[in-house]
Task: structure prediction
Amino acid sequence: MERLAELMEQAHGGDKRARDCLVSENLGLVHAVARRFDNRGHDREEIFQIGCIGLMKAIDKFDVSLHLAFSTYAVPMITGEIRRFLRDDGMVKVSRTLKENGYKISRARENLVRELGREPCMEEIAAAVGLKPEEIVLALEANREVESIYQPVYERDGDELLLIDQIDGGAGDGSEEPEKEAVLNQMVVNQLLDMLGDKERQLLTLRYFEGKTQSETAGLLGMSQVQVSRMEKRTLLLLREKMM
Result:
């Protein structure tokens, strides 16, 4: 555990060698998950590469302070990445390179925003990822439709929560091990909720686990309905960002 924490700290600090080491040591997780998606009309190597993107996301987002086994966090992330690929890979095909570039650009933008305290310009992003501006535009355009799938989630009235869909990549896709998936999904949901403040966690519990309306939630929390609506939207957006 101490070695994992040390490597994670180095990787989160920008150490490419430590990050590559974590990826290499956990490729077995990707292989295990990828095997479950055989006979879906895609080459296993392609599924494996998509799963590797999920593994890299898990490494980038993993919080050692939560004292969870890395595999507990990584498996749902890998599974979700593959499921999103299978679900979104419709009539318009996006190459693996464009998908990987899209992720690199998104990660570089987040890092630059933290470093600069503002939105980076195209040239700054290009320098960070080693791509030409036109390659960045192409990657962003190619991935735009995939990202738009998540937008309607926060425009609904609260009658339905799609957080699970975001975590496991969507339900109803014929998973061979639904009980295991449910356990993994619950682990990730609990981990995400633990990252929130008491009030935000209580709000989501009332809204989506106890089925309270925004007005009922407002009364129980001593807030206005508008405040509940804003906090709910802000919290769901935060959870989405932590899963991306």
